Amino acid sequence: TATTGSFTYCGSIGATPQDGRLVFGNNCNYVFNGITTLPFPTGGTWQIPNDVTINGAVTFNKIDAFDLNGKLLVNSGGILKLNPVLGADLNLKDTMTIDGSFDTNGSNKILYSDGSPSIVLNGTFITKNPLGLTGSDASVPTLPIIMGIDATVNYAGGNQVISSSLDYKNLIISGNGIK
Q1: CA distance 135 to 125
Q2: Contact criterion met (CB below 8 Å) for 65 and 87
Q3: Which residue of 18, 62, 70, 158 has the lowest C-beta tally within 10 Å?
Q4: Residue 41 class from Cβ within 10 Å (0-12 exposed, 13-18 middle, 19+ buried)?
């Protein structure tokens, strides 16, 4: 249990006090409350976490896939952005619930390697993928998306296909290009 302003971890803090590197252990649960860029760019090791909760503005700066063993929760008021580098996908094994905002920040995808994950959308999903939200090579190629009453999908990229297989609750067309 962490108190306000503390850092609780499941790994170690570098071999020497001056190196400042963190090791985030496997299957730990993380809660991010502030403006954060992950993994921390000053070095360290980010292993596969279990549950991740986003309460603030979080950007993943990984240049390859981000694997997650547990649930991903983006709470109301929180925003999670993927790195815009191609291949910086999100690999789920469990449910992703978006009550805040999620931004693919490019052509990256939400994938899964095993389990039966789904996406519960009660907030805003921002896609910039030219192939749209769902379908082959789209932001969400194969996972089911459960749209809550307040679900919003924002097509915010350049030229984009608007996915037609969804029961949209709120749809925003932004960005430039032909939709």
Answers
A1: 15
A2: yes
A3: 18
A4: exposed
Q: How does pLDDT run across 103-126, given as a tens digit for each residue?
A: 999 999 999 988 899 999 999 999
Q: What span, in angstroms and rounded, lies between the C-alpha atoms of 118 and 136?
A: 16
Query: Is it the case that residue 170 has pLDDT exceeding 90?
Result: yes
Residue type, 59: T
CB 92 within 8 A of CB 114: no
Q: Name the burial class of residue 44, with classes exposed (0-12), middle (13-18) and buried (19+) by CB atoms within 10 angstroms of its CB.
A: middle
- Residue 85 amino acid letter: V
Which residues share a beta bridge with 112?
Answer: 92
Structure tokens at 1: 């249990």
Residues in the chain: 179
